[in-house]
């Protein structure tokens, strides 16, 4: 979780920094306009508003940072889930062991009383 928060903060800082740099450049530097299109013939046709190439690069960079943080966090999440299930199994086995001990102690305490009478 700490890595994810760190990645979010870093992505935000990089976004602010790169946005500042981008806005202070002239239009010729990153001013190429990109329009994304998605078309399924006879069903759907989508087209985005024209977006400057600089913003596309900036957003792709920040999304990439977040994706890497999420990919790094997934194995630790699965390890945590595995540890919880193993701890649950251990507690269950300890309860069963204590019940068996109580039963054996009860039988041991009852056994000499029956042999004496």
Supply database-style keywords.
117 residues, 77% helix, 4 strands, mainly alpha
Note the topology:
Blueprint (H helix, E strand, L loop, with lengths): L1 H22 L3 H4 L2 E2 L2 E4 L3 E4 L3 E2 H64 L1
Helix pairs in contact: 1-3
**Order of strands side by side in the largest beta sheet?**
1-4
> Radius of gyration from the CA trace?
32 Å
The average pLDDT is: 82
Structural class, please? mainly alpha
Low-confidence stretches: none
What's the overall geometry? elongated
First CA to last CA: what distance? 66 Å
Number of β-strand runs: 4
Approximate helicity band: over 70%
The fraction of residues in strands falls at: 5-15%
Q: Give the count of helical stretches.
A: 3
- N-to-C order of helices and strands: HHEEEEH
Largest sheet: 2 strands, antiparallel
Question: Could you describe the 3D structure shown?
Answer:
The structure is a single chain. The protein has 117 residues and is mainly alpha-helical. 77% of the residues lie in helices and 10% in strands. It contains 3 helices and 4 strands. The chain has helices at 2-23, 27-30, 53-116; strands at 33-34, 37-40, 44-47, 51-52. The strands form 2 sheets. The chain has a two-stranded antiparallel sheet. The protein has a two-stranded antiparallel sheet with strand order 2-3. Helix 1 (2-23) packs antiparallel against helix 3 (53-116). The N and C termini lie far apart (66 Å). The relative contact order is 0.10.
């Amino acid at each position: 979780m700490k890595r994810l928060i760190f990645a979010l903060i870093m992505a935000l800082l990089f976004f602010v920094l790169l946005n500042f740099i981008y806005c202070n450049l002239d239009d010729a530097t990153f001013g190429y306009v990109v329009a994304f299109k998605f078309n399924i013939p006879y069903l759907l046709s989508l087209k985005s508003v024209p977006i400057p190439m600089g913003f596309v690069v900036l957003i792709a960079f920040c999304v990439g940072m977040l994706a890497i943080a999420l990919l790094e966090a997934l194995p630790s999440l699965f390890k945590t889930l595995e540890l919880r299930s193993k701890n649950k199994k251990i507690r269950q086995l300890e309860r069963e062991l204590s019940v068996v001990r109580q039963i054996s102690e009860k039988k041991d305490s009852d056994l000499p009383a029956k042999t004496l009478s």
